[in-house]
Design brief:
Arc Repressor Mutant, subunit A, 6 helices, 3 strands
Length: 164
Amino acid sequence: MSAAEAAADGDERAVLVGAIAEDYQAYLRHFRCAAADRLARQGVSMAHLHVLWLLLEHGELSMSRLAELLDVSLSNATGLIDRMEERSLVERARVPDDRRLVLVRPTAHGLEAVQEMEAFKRDLFESVLGRLDTDQLNRLRQTIRDLATVVDEAPGGCGPAPTT
């Protein structure tokens, strides 16, 4: 393959990667929109859901660490947690050895909200997948496995990609 052909192939590849990323983002926006509407009717904002996801990923967190992960000031995080606590989505707990340290953890109601959202997304995704034929489903499954392998090898992130 000549240098010109390799460059053209690289350009075509870059265009394809960009198109796939754009299509995927559009698909995710559709899911987020449907999920946000459903959550709003239950009094749960996307910010609340984000906090709950962080707590599920990291376990109970101090207010300062939570503010850091959210990239907001401590006072903004405190206001958010106040509202979530009013809705029984999270609870605060003082550490017995250091009463100044306050940890935030999800309540049973907060966990239920996340589980319901995950079930909603799964149902919506399965509905979409149900429209594909068996060959398309097999190709998609292999592609997702290939992506998981690449994600596992990538620096940063939240650890290994889930496997089935």
